[in-house]
Design brief:
With about 170 residues, this protein is an alpha+beta fold. It has 2 domains: about 100 residues, 2-Layer Sandwich (TATA-Binding Protein), CATH 3.30.310.10; about 50 residues, 3-methyladenine DNA Glycosylase II, Chain A, domain 3, CATH 1.10.15. About 30% of the residues lie in helices and about 20% in strands. It has 5 helices and 6 strands. A 6-stranded antiparallel β-sheet has the order 1-2-6-5-4-3, covered by helices on one side. The longest helix has 20 residues. The protein is elongated. The protein starts with 8 loop residues before the first strand and ends with a helix. The structure holds iron/sulfur cluster (SF4). Iron/sulfur cluster (SF4) binds next to helix 4.
Length: about 170
């Protein structure tokens, strides 16, 4: 049977430093084992995360909780009480061990989340003629919809798809 990556841990509950005494707690799971190696595989498998490979930090949002993975710690917030902390801990440790055991079938991802380009950077790619062919009253209004993903770049016939793709790639 393949070996689990996480074999021993301890859970500690704490109030957030910014809200001492708050009933929205944070669970800190201290890990005996270093989980650095699994982070790029978790990054590939989990949806809704951010990853800093150099700093060995993976952030993941799931079911209203934020998980922060570090080499010897997983932090989860917000957490209501010990019972919920234990349940979330069991689940996340199972996930980490499962991904570790499946890693041969997973393409690791070392990239962090791409940031959307700034409104100004998108606007600079448009001709500023406000011709309205895209269906928006101004180029700036169209740029704003591109930035929040609520329209398609192809709606502006004057926007170079190549240049726009290059801007998105910069992340
Ligand atoms: S079609 Fe292009 S140039 Fe015309 S208003 Fe829309 S974004 Fe501006």
């Amino acid at each position: 049977m393949p070996q689990n990556l996480i074999r021993g841990y301890e859970i500690r509950l704490a109030s957030p430093e910014c809200h001492p005494g708050s009933d929205r707690l944070r669970a800190f799971i201290s890990l005996e084992d270093d989980i650095s190696e699994v982070l790029p595989y978790l990054n590939a498998e989990l949806v809704g995360f951010d990853y800093h490979h150099q700093d060995k930090i993976l952030l993941w949002a799931n079911n209203g909780k934020i998980y922060a993975f570090r080499p010897h710690e997983i932090a989860i917030a917000p957490v209501l009480d010990n019972e919920e902390a234990q349940e979330l801990t069991n689940n996340i440790i199972h996930t980490v061990n499962d991904v570790w055991q499946q890693r041969d079938k997973i393409q690791p991802n070392f990239e962090g989340r791409k940031r959307p380009p700034s409104l100004l950077d998108i606007y600079k790619l448009l001709p500023s003629t406000n011709c309205k062919e895209c269906g928006f009253p101004t180029c700036m209004a169209f740029a704003a919809t591109l930035r929040n993903d609520s329209s398609k770049s192809s709606l502006c016939p004057y926007l170079s798809e190549q240049e726009y793709a290059r801007l998105l790639d910069k992340g």
